[in-house]
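In the previous chapter we treated chains in isolation. Here, by contrast, the input contains two separate entities that must be folded as one system, with a combined length of 866 residues.
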Amino acid sequence: MKVQSPPGMRDFYPEDMRLQNWLFDTWRRVSRSFGFEEYEGPIFEYLDLYTLKSGEGIVSELFNFKDRGQRHFAIRPEMTPTLARMVAARANTLPRPIKWFSIPRMCRAEKPQRGRLREFYQWNVDILGVEDPLADAEIIAVAVEFLRQAGLRPEDVVVKMNDRHFASELLTRLGIPPGSQEHAFDLIDRQEKLGVEEFSRQWNEAYGGQPPAEELVEFLEKELTSSTFYELVSGRVPDAVRDQFNGFWDSLKALGVADFCEFDAKVVRGLAYYTGIVFEVHARHLPLRAVLGGGRYDSLTKLLGGPRVPATGFGMGDAPVLELLRALGRLPEFGEALDVFVIDAGPEYFGAALNLVGDLRRAGLSVDFSYKRTGVSKLFKQASARGARYAIVVGAELAQRNEFTVKNLLTGRQELVAADRLRVGPRMVLEML
Amino acid sequence: MKVQSPPGMRDFYPEDMRLQNWLFDTWRRVSRSFGFEEYEGPIFEYLDLYTLKSGEGIVSELFNFKDRGQRHFAIRPEMTPTLARMVAARANTLPRPIKWFSIPRMCRAEKPQRGRLREFYQWNVDILGVEDPLADAEIIAVAVEFLRQAGLRPEDVVVKMNDRHFASELLTRLGIPPGSQEHAFDLIDRQEKLGVEEFSRQWNEAYGGQPPAEELVEFLEKELTSSTFYELVSGRVPDAVRDQFNGFWDSLKALGVADFCEFDAKVVRGLAYYTGIVFEVHARHLPLRAVLGGGRYDSLTKLLGGPRVPATGFGMGDAPVLELLRALGRLPEFGEALDVFVIDAGPEYFGAALNLVGDLRRAGLSVDFSYKRTGVSKLFKQASARGARYAIVVGAELAQRNEFTVKNLLTGRQELVAADRLRVGPRMVLEML
C-alpha cells in the first residue's frame, strides 16, 4: 500500500530545504541585528487559548483533538496567543522591553485546494512592554531590513500603514459607532478578497445600508489611499493620537526606512485585538496576497489572564514572500556545497582515504567520498556533481612521498601538498590553491 | 481566564532557546561536514503511515484527529516513516547515495507525568541506497563527531553495537525460531526498563519458559556484554554476515571513531523494522536513557509501497542529550550577545543616534538602544546588562567634530572615532578597539 503525503502539507526535499533555510537564516540574522531574541512554544495549545481570543467560530478552522484525559487541544494557527501566554506567565520578572522573535510552524484546517496550504511557517517579531510608537517603527524597520536583504526595493514592495484610531474615526463619521465597528474592520480587511459585489451584500446585511456599501467602497478606493485623508482625519482624533502617529513617522525616517512606507486608510487588519498602528506589506505591481501583516495589540495579555502589557508586532508567512520573490524572478539559487571530495586512486588507498576524510571533517570542513570503489575519472565526476570545491586524491604519492594531490575544481589548478601540512591546517592550504 | 501551557510540552524562553539553538546548530554543522543534506516533512501524516508500520496498537500513543473530509491524521511520533515515504515517492529519480538529515519536532501521547515529554525534537541522520556497512560506519561516525563537539569523550559515552543477525542466531540457539523472534527483540530491548521480575513474567508468558527467562537474563548480563560472544556467535552466522560486521569494524577504525564503540549483544532495538547492524549510545557511568538509537532497516520503503531501498540511520533526542550534558556539568552557557548599544547623550541627539543604529544594522552588526530617553550612566548600565561588546555615545562630539565616543565594554578602552570612518567600515573600526 502506498501512503500519500497529506493534502496541503509540504515535503521539503533537500533542494527545497536549501531555499527554506536561506529564508530562515535571513530572518534570524536580521532579527538578531535588531537585538531581538528567539523563543519557541509548543506545536499545540489548549483549544481555549484560541476560542478565548477569537470565539467558538474558530474551532472549525483548527486541527483540534482530545487526549485520553479529555483535554482539548488545537495545533497552533498563529503564534501571538502563545507569545501572550508566555509573557503573561512571567509578566513580573521578564526585563523590559521584551524584544522577541520566532519562526513557528503552524496549521490551519483549510479545505484542501490548489495553492492553499494547511501548514506554513511564519516569522513573528514582537516588542512588548513599550507604549512608545518608536517600538512600532522598530518593528517596521526590522521587516524592511529583511525585504532589503531579500533584494526587494521600494519600487517592488510597500509598507501600507494606518492607525485603528483613524479608521475608527472614519467609521464613526459614517454613522457606525465605536461599539459596532469590529465587524466593519473585518469586512474592510477582506474587501479585496470578497470583491465589490459580495462585500456590498455582506456590508448592507450587517449595517442595513447605513452607510450604503457603495459610498464606503468609493471612499476607500478614491479618497482614502491618499495621505490627504490622513491630514483630514488626524484633525479629528485626539491630539495624543495624532502626535503619536507623527512621532512614529519621524522614527521611520530616522531609522532610514520611510522610503518603503505609505499611509493607507484601507489597511485596518481583520483581527479584533489590534488597538493602534496597523500595517501590511504588499507587492507594488503584482496581484499577490499581503506578504506581512501586523500592528499594535495592547490588550491581549490581559485577555489571557495576565496584566496589561502594551505590544506591537507582525507575522510574515514563508509562502507569500517566496511567491513574491519567485514572481519577480529574484529567488536565490543554491546547489549542494561541499568543501572537499576525497578520491582513492585504488582500493589499496581506501583506508588512508577514509583516514583523511575523518581528519578533514574533524577540522570542520564538509567532506565526502564514494561508498563504491571505482575509477579515478568517475570519482572526479562525482566530486563535480556534488558541487565540491576541491578534490583530494589519495594515491601512490602518499605511499612514496607522503603527499596528496589537491585539485581546485573551480579553477582546475592542481598541486601536490605534503600530507602533514594538509592535516595541520587544511583550510589554509586549500584557500591558497 | 488564565490559559496554562499544555502538559508535557515545553515553552522555550530566550535563555532556553539559546541552548536549543546551540544544539540544533551543532547538529546541522556536523551533518553538513559529513556531506548530509537537510530535508523536512509535514508535522502530521495520514494515520495509515504509522499503523502500516507498527500495527493498530500504536494509535493510542499518537495524537490523532480527523479533518472535515474525514481523513484520519496523526502528529508524527517519529521521522523514519516520513523519510521512507518521501524516498519511495522519488525512488527512481533521487541520485544515490541519499545522505539526508533532519531535525524534526514530533509528539507522542504520553500520559502527562514528571520528566515525560509529549513533544520533543530529534536529530535524524540516514543513508539510503547503500548496502555496504561502510554506510553504517558513516552513520556512527557522524554521531560520534557530534558527541565530541559537545565535549563528550570515550570515558563519558559508549556506542554499543550489535547485528540483528547475531541476536537472531542467539535466540535460535536458545530454541526460539526466526519466525517468533520479533516479540523477543522487543522484550530484550525493554529488559532494563522492565526490571528482572517483570521481564521474567512477560518472557515466560510469551515463550512458556522455553528457554526460562532466568537463563536468558544470566546470559545477557554475563556472557553477552563481552566481545568473546561476538567471536562465539560470528562463527555460527553465514560468512557474509560475519565479513560485513568485520568490514564495518574496520571502517569505524579508519574513520577514527572506534575508541567510542563496543560490541554489546544486549542491544537489539525494539522496533520490528531493523534488519542488520543496530546501535545505541549510552552514558558510561550514569543511569540515564539511551541518547541515541538506530540501525539498518532495508525493507521499510517496500513496506510503504515503494521499491526496496537499503537504509541505515539513527535518531537522537534533544532531551536525553541535554540531560546527559547537564548531569556531567558540561552544558554550554550563553548570554545575550549584542555587538553595539547606541547611547544618546541627550534627547537632542536621539535622531542622530537612531540614524547610526540604522546604519550599523544595515552593515550586519547586532545593535540596540533604549526606547526610553534617560541619563547616560543608566544607558551604559543597560548596555552592559544586554551583553553588548561596545557602547557608542552620540553627543556633543558629533555636532562639534563629527565624531562618536566608542567604548569597548570588555576592556573599558574608550576612543573618539570619526563618524565617516565608523559608517564606512564599522566592523573593522570596532575590532581595532
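Chain A touches chain B through 97 residues (CB under 8 Å). The first helix of chain A runs from residue 14 to 33. Compare these points with the single-chain example from earlier in the chapter.
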